Amino acid sequence: MKLLAVLAAGACLLSAEPLTKAERDAAVAQLQRTAKLFKNSVKGLTPEQWKFKQAADRWSAAEVAEHITLSEDTIFGASQNALKTPAKPHAADAAQKDAMILKAVPERNQKVQAPEVLRPTNKWPDPKAMLKEFDTRRKRNINYIRTTQDDLRAHFVPHPVLGPMDGYQWILLLSAHSERHTNQILEVKADSKFPKK
Q1: pTM of the model
Q2: What domains can you pick out in the chain, each with its CATH number?
Q3: Model confidence over 111-161: pLDDT tens digits?
Q4: Cβ atoms of 38 and 68 closer than 8 Å
């Protein structure tokens, strides 16, 4: 019986397919691009600008930036949770769903309530500490995509709005999510009451 289990596990390992070079390159480029957009959006903000809110029920640039940073681990974790599910055939429409995630998620015409775990609580003492943590997490996620041999395309977990997504699509979502909230920071900065330097 043990021999059968070992052989079955070996067969699963042999059938796993790593990401293609094109998939790796695309995800790395997205993650690098959106990291740069985010960091540029908060660069040089004064303490008053950092904490400015458009309204009492809206997030400041500081709170949005914390949400982006917290999401690095949470959304990456979903891609890893997908790997714990049984392997399925790769989705035939994977490329179309990839493109939809990258296009639709950054758009802010539909608001979504953040889960409790991703709501800001002033976790980091200052912007510098928070951005350092973002860099650490984003670099780790980029390195994972560059080097992983996991078959991210064969394992799925559902997203509450986007439906079933494979592990690779959760990585794309991570990038698109940070772009979505970078756009939110830009909205805060464009407010007519945003403090001048």
Answers
A1: 0.89
A2: 20-190 (1.20.120.450)
A3: 888 889 899 999 988 899 999 999 999 999 999 999 999 999 999 999 999
A4: yes
